[in-house]
Each structure stands twice: as structure tokens, then as C-alpha cells.
């Protein structure tokens, strides 16, 4: 699992995507801990060795699995890489891999940039690559950027490679291997070890992380086994239907997928006891196979996913608008979109849960539920039988390569739609194989084979793409998707999250409907939309403070943060207090992250606790004195308290630390403008616009400032350039139309206003400006 940073994270994580704080100790030879120093007993856990005494077959299958080898001590048995003294230089990075007796050592640049020797303490993963960890004196385990390609030589493996070969990553960069974005303890530990306790001490900023097993053992999935052992030792009485296990995973028992003779679709149906609407197997696998933010510390197996984690929705840059994987998002977010998920399919229907392998080879795994006579034919897949292209996964589970060599398949099991992909600017599985062919060619063939009408029209991707880009009519498209319960909850929740604010009639109606949705992920997303409303319009959230799902409760508390307690119904006040505590506790799960303290500061400030907010900002900056999000938010906090000098000082620190970040320059400019120093704001505004030409608001604000200083021609030039890059940027169109109106260029002004009005037929301001300009032209026909 890659755990998401708290919501205000300012820089995307990469590589293994971990988190850490700066080190006080410079380059040094770090010795390994005492054997098994991090392993200790945890109440209720008995270890996989104990399980194996009764479950020998399962244990034997597990021992060869990637789960069993998810992490290991750096011993000759576990280390796959070449540590024979080989040196690697890729143009930006250098490392030498050595043996020092029984120790494995890497010689590379350390926390202060000085080259030194670092002892490998653990291996991390095994196939198709293996990474290595270094234990530092403050308890942090840092993941090295050099990985061993464990594939065969014939596949291009058996070599060292750098996971960010094109990025120099100096020691001051948080993404440097010793920086806070690469710490194993917070991001990776819980999914690579069993019975893990992170052991972070916020007072000393140190870790004492421990586990009951170094790798992913039986109790990672089945939960603590002590009660099960007691049940077995007591004679395996049948009075406990779950046999002492906190996690009961037998979703496959008591039934089977069978084909109905009269079903022309050729798709199997489940015959047996009804499966849960959210099967325990999927809930158990989700925390480690999803991009998600933990809501509780060290969650144990057996809890409901949305009680312990807040999963990522289909966010831009991580998923294409049609739901295809893009960033390193793992499997759950894709599977949650699928028809398989809604039909009750669980992970173990396709995967052997102990070996981690597929239950059958090739198309045979799909043939369990998809009749070969209907689907494994040239009439269906349109490729030569037996060829790679005739494999079900080739069309329905396209792969993306992460970390250089790790090909992972999309688990949405989607139907290829090159026509939709062309509209949203995404890849499609057809032209990914048929390189050089346009998407229109692929779409035309699919129409010839299967006809023009498709079962999934109108495709959800069109609404999501429209919402992401702020296109005309996006609110209605998103509202329709959000309220259509035939679609997967993750799709509907994503649609809710994209609803434009302030709400249109369609948007407001959709929010009201999705607040009452039976799926908690949709309810939680609907509650987040209330952040865009005035506090007096957020009282609807009060009824969700006692929701059965933790994620919904904390989002209700977040929405009500600026609402005074005495404004809530009296009966809801105790529930608010409990949900508020859960919300703050969920943020403190990431106490080692500066972003967590920025979030806490914002919440406390919304409640009027200025002293608490100020302390939280201090905590954030104590963890990273140059953190951009902390400095920018602190500046806004100080400005709202009337402390303009303090706000400016924080922003100048931000600019000095992040000279290439447009947001720092932009925030400084706005702070100067609020002080009446518009002329001083021009330079940082220009800098922000130059750094981020892809973000139209920076150039727009620059033009507004120029126009206010009566440098109208310069303002118009900036707006024209911005519109050339972003022809659909509504505010720039309105601003330039207004300038041209004031300069009596009515024809050009009317053209610009018409373009702005066409973007959104409900835009009253654009419509009013257009009507005004047309009236002026009628009264003054001689005006150009």
C-alpha cells in the first residue's frame, strides 16, 4: 500500500513513497541492530509458525509467496543484489555496493550530501525488484533509491538501477533517500510486516517501530490468532462460528459460480449463501492494495475499510478520467469500479490467497465465470486464437509499468473504448498495442464488430473529464452520474467531489441526494462538498455525526468545524464532540508529517482556537522549517489576525526556500497587495505566472494587478497570451472583454464576452456583460 499524505500535502510522493523528517546525524557508518531487535510480542498474536502446526499446506504455499518475502533481514538468504564491490554511475547518481563480512553496505551520498558507507539492515520486496533499507539512530528506516532488478538476464534484469534516474535529488530535497518522503516507518511498514506498531514519539521525533513478524504472515490477513488457538485447544467447539478469528474470510464457502443453461450472456452466477455487500476478503485486502490515508494508528485486520482508511478517489494524475490507472494507485480503486466487484466477486476468486498466484493460467482464470465458448473465441476478441492479443487481460486489464520494471494490471476489467479515450485525452488498450494507428481507427473497428450502441453509454468518463476541466454543463453531467446508483460508489463519489461550487440547482439537488446515499464513500464525499458553503448552510451535516462509518463521521465533523457548538441542535452536540475527537485523532495518525499539523491548525482556527492553531503551525515548522504548505497557511492565518508583518515574513521564508514554486511567489504577491503595495506585488506575480504557464489563474491575477496600476496595455497583453494558452479560461475572457469595453473596442469586447458566455449558459455575469455590450453597439453603431 502507498499511504496518502494528509489532505494538504504539497508535493506528490514517488518511488516507494515514504515519509521522514530531517536527520541530525550526518554521513556515518550505521551498524545493524541486534538480531530481531525490532521483533517483539504483541497481545493476541501468536506467529505464523504456530499457525503452521495445524495448517501445514497453507503455510507451505505461503512460504514461497511475495507476502512471505515482503521484507526480510539483510542476510545472504534474502539479499538478491550484487554487493561484490560493483560501482554504478548513471550520470546523476553514484553508488558502490560492498560486503563487509556479514554486512551489506552501500557507499553513496548521505543526509548532508557527503558520501559515506551505510549498512543495509533489511530487504524490501523481492519480485520484480528488490529494495533495501537503512536503519538510522532515530529509528527511521530509509529506503534506498537504488534497486536490484531481480528479473532474469533474458528479461533485462540482474542489474542495479536508480528509481529516479532523471532527477538529481540533492540531500536537501525531501525526495532524497534520507528525506522525509522516503521513510519506511510511516508509509510502507504496516503493509510489509505483521503486528506492526509504528511507535512514533511526537515529543522526541523518534521511532521505536516493532513487529511480531518481519514479513506479511498469517495474522496480517486473519487477525491475531491467540483466540483461534484457544478455540482449537478447547476441542474446536462449534459455538463460535468464526472459530476465534477476528477476520472471517470464507466468502467462497458454501457456494460456487455456475453457468445457467438459459443465460445467453455466458456469465456465471453465484449459487450459494448470499455474499456480503462488501465482502470481508475485499475489506481485508483493501488497506494494503489501495492508495489510502489511515484514520487510526496501527489498524488491525478485521475492521471495515472505511473505518480505518480514507481511500483516494479517481483523482487527476492518478487515474485517467475513464478510471484507468495512471499513478501508482494499486488495485483496490480499479476493482471498486468494476462490474466484478458489484457482482460479489472477491480477490480469492481469481488469486490463491496463500501462494499469491492466479488460480489458473491464462484465460482459464477468467473462464471460471466467463464461458469460453462465448468469450474465448475469435468472434469475441478478434485476434488469432492462442496469441498474446487473444488473452483476456490484454484488452480488459491493460498494464502500466511502475518503478522502472514493475508491470501492474488494471483491475477495473473495463471494456476498451478508444472513442472515449480520444475525447478525454487518455490512452486506450487498442492503440497501445497497435502503435501508429489512430484511436479513430480502433473505434471504427469496434463499431463494425459490435455495433454503434454500447452498454456503458453515456460513459462516466465524459462527466469526470468535464468536471476536471470545468466545461460547460459539467454540473448537470456530474449530478447525473453522482445520483445514478447503477454506477460504482467510487465513480459516484468522484463525481460528487468534482461538483462545482457555489452550487447550481443541479449541483445542490445532487448533494442533497448523495448525502443520503446508502454507500458511505459517497456520503463522505458529499460531506466534503459542504466545505464550500457558508457555515450556516452546513447544518445538514449534523445528522451524520453518529453515522455507523468512521470516515463519514469525521467528514461531518470537518464540515461543521466553523459552526459554533450552540448553533447545532442540542441533541447533536455530544455526537459532534465525539466525532470532532475522532477527526483530530485521524490527523494525528500522521503526526510525523508537517501537513498533519497544518490540517490540525486549520481545524482549530475554524473553531476559534487561535492559540491551539498557532501551536499546531509551530509543530509543523518544527518538523520542516521550510515546508511550503505550513508557511503559506501560517501567513494566511497571521494575515487574518491582522499581523501583516508576520504574514509577509513567513511568505518571504517560503520564497527563499522554494524559489521555483509558483504558489510561494503568488501568495507573497497577494499579501503585499492586501497591504496596499500593488506595485511591489507585480514582480512576484510575474514570477508565479512565468513559473506556471499551465496554471491560468497566476497570469490572470498578474493582469488584474497591472490594470489596477493603469498599465492597461501590459494587462491586455498578459490576458491575450493567457487566453491563447487557455482559451476556455472564463475569468481571463471576462477581464479582457471588460478592458476592451473600457477602451471602446466594442467588437472585440463582444466577441470575448460571447466566448465566456458560451462556456456556461448559466453564467449570469458573462451573460450580463454580453447583453450590455450588444446594447452599447446598438446605441453606438459607429464604435468598432
UniProtKB/TrEMBL annotation:
Q: Where is the Doubled CXXCH motif domain?
A: 347-371
Q: Which key words tag this protein in UniProt?
A: Signal
Provide the Cytochrome c-552/4 domain boundaries: 50-74, 183-223
| One Pfam family it belongs to | Paired_CXXCH_1
Tagged with keyword Signal: yes
Keyword Signal tagged: yes
What name is this protein filed under? Tetratricopeptide repeat protein
What species is given as this protein's source? Roseomonas nitratireducens
Amino acid at each position: 500500500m502507498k499511504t496518502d499524505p494528509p489532505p494538504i500535502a504539497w508535493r506528490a510522493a514517488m518511488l516507494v513513497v515514504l515519509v521522514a523528517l530531517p536527520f541530525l546525524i550526518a554521513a556515518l557508518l550505521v551498524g545493524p541492530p541486534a538480531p530481531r531487535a525490532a521483533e517483539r510480542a504483541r497481545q493476541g498474536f501468536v506467529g505464523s509458525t504456530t499457525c503452521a502446526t495445524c495448517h501445514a499446506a497453507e503455510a507451505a504455499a505461503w512460504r514461497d509467496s511475495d507476502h512471505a518475502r515482503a521484507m526480510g533481514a539483510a542476510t545472504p538468504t534474502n539479499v538478491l543484489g550484487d554487493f561484490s564491490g560493483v560501482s554504478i554511475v548513471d550520470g546523476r547518481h553514484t553508488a558502490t555496493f560492498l560486503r563487509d563480512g556479514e554486512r551489506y553496505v552501500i557507499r553513496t551520498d548521505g543526509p548532508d550530501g557527503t558520501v559515506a558507507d551505510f549498512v543495509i539492515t533489511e530487504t524490501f520486496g523481492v519480485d520484480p525488484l528488490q529494495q533495501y533499507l537503512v536503519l538510522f539512530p532515530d529509528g527511521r528506516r530509509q529506503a534506498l533509491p537504488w534497486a536490484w532488478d531481480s528479473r532474469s538476464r533474458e528479461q533485462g534484469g540482474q542489474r542495479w538501477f536508480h528509481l529516479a534516474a532523471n532527477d538529481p535529488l540533492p540531500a536537501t530535497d525531501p525526495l532524497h533517500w534520507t528525506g522525509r518522503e522516503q521513510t519506511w516507518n510511516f508509509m510502507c511498514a504496516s503493509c510489509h510486516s505483521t503486528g506492526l506498531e509504528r511507535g512514533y514519539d511526537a515529543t522526541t521525533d523518534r521511532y521505536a517501530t516493532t513487529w511480531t513478524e518481519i514479513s506479511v504472515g498469517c495474522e496480517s490477513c486473519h487477525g491475531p490468532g491467540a483466540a483461534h488457538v484457544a478455540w482449537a485447544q478447547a476441542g474446536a467447539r462449534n459455538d463460535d462460528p468464526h472459530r476465534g478469528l477476528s477476520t472471517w474470510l470464507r466468502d467462497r464457502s458454501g457456494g460456487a459460480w455456475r453457468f445457467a443453461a438459459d443465460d445467453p450472456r455466458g456469465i456465471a452466477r453465484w449459487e450459494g449463501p448470499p455474499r456480503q455487500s462488501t465482502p470481508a476478503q475485499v475489506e481485508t485486502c483493501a488497506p494494503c492494495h489501495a492508495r489510502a490515508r489511515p484514520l487510526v494508528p496501527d489498524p488491525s485486520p478485521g475492521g471495515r475499510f472505511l473505518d480505518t482508511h480514507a481511500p483516494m478517489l479517481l483523482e487527476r494524475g492518478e487515474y485517467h478520467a475513464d478510471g484507468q490507472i495512471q499513478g501508482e494507485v494499486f488495485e483496490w480503486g480499479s476493482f471498486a469500479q468494476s462490474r466484478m466487484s458489484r457482482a460479489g466477486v472477491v480477490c480469492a476468486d481469481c488469486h490463491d490467497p496463500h501462494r499469491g498466484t492466479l488460480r489458473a493460467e491464462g484465460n482459464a482464470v477468467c473462464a471460471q465465470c466467463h464461458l469460453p465458448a462465448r468469450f474465448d473465441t475469435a468472434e469475441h476478441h478478434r485476434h488469432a486464437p492462442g496469441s498474446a492479443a487473444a488473452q483476456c487481460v490484454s484488452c480488459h486489464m491493460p498494464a502500466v509499468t511502475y518503478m522502472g520494471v514493475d508491470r501492474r494490471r488494471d483491475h477495473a476489467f473495463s471494456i476498451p473504448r478508444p472513442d472515449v479515450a480520444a475525447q478525454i485525452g487518455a490512452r486506450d488498450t487498442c492503440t497501445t498495442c497497435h502503435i501508429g494507428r489512430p484511436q479513430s481507427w480502433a473505434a471504427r473497428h469496434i463499431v463494425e464488430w459490435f455495433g454503434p450502441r454500447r452498454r456503458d453509454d453515456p460513459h462516466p468518463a465524459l462527466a469526470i473529464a468535464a468536471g476536471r476541466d470545468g466545461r460547460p454543463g459539467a454540473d448537470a453531467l456530474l449530478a447525473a452520474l453522482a445520483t445514478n446508483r447503477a454506477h460504482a460508489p467510487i465513480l459516484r463519489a468522484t463525481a460528487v467531489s468534482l461538483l462545482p461550487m457555489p452550487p447550481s440547482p443541479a449541483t445542490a439537488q445532487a448533494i442533497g441526494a448523495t448525502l443520503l446515499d446508502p454507500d458511505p464513500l459517497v456520503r463522505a464525499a458529499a460531506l466534503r462538498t459542504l466545505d464550500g458553503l457558508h457555515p450556516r448552510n452546513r447544518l445538514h451535516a449534523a445528522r451524520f455525526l453518529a453515522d455507523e462509518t468512521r470516515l463519514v463521521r469525521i467528514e461531518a465533523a470537518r464540515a461543521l468545524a466553523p459552526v459554533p457548538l450552540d448553533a447545532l441542535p442540542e441533541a447533536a452536540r455530544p455526537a459532534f464532540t465525539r466525532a470532532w475527537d475522532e477527526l483530530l485523532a485521524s490527523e494525528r495518525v500522521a503526526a510525523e508529517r508537517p501537513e498533519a499539523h497544518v490540517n490540525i491548525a486549520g481545524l482549530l482556527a475554524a473553531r476559534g482556537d487561535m492559540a491551539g492553531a498557532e501551536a499546531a503551525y509551530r509543530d509543523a515548522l518544527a518538523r520542516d522549517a521550510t515546508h511550503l504548505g505550513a508557511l503559506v497557511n501560517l501567513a494566511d492565518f497571521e494575515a487574518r489576525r491582522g499581523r501583516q508583518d508576520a504574514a509577509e515574513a513567513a511568505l518571504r521564508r517560503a520564497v527563499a526556500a522554494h524559489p521555483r514554486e509558483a504558489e510561494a511567489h503568488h501568495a507573497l504577491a497577494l499579501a503585499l497587495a492586501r497591504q496596499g503595495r500593488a506595485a511591489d506585488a507585480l514582480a512576484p506575480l510575474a514570477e508565479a505566472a512565468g513559473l506556471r504557464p499551465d496554471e491560468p489563474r497566476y497570469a490572470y491575477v498578474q493582469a488584474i494587478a497591472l490594470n489596477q496600476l493603469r498599465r492597461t496595455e501590459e494587462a491586455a497583453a498578459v490576458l491575450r497570451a493567457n487566453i491563447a494558452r487557455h482559451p476556455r479560461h472564463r475569468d481571463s475572457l471576462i477581464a479582457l472583454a471588460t478592458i476592451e469595453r473600457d477602451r471602446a473596442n466594442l467588437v472585440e469586447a463582444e466577441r470575448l464576452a460571447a466566448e465566456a458566455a458560451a462556456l456556461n449558459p448559466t453564467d449570469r455575469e458573462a451573460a450580463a456583460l454580453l447583453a450590455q455590450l450588444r446594447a452599447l453597439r446598438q446605441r453606438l453603431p459607429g464604435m468598432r
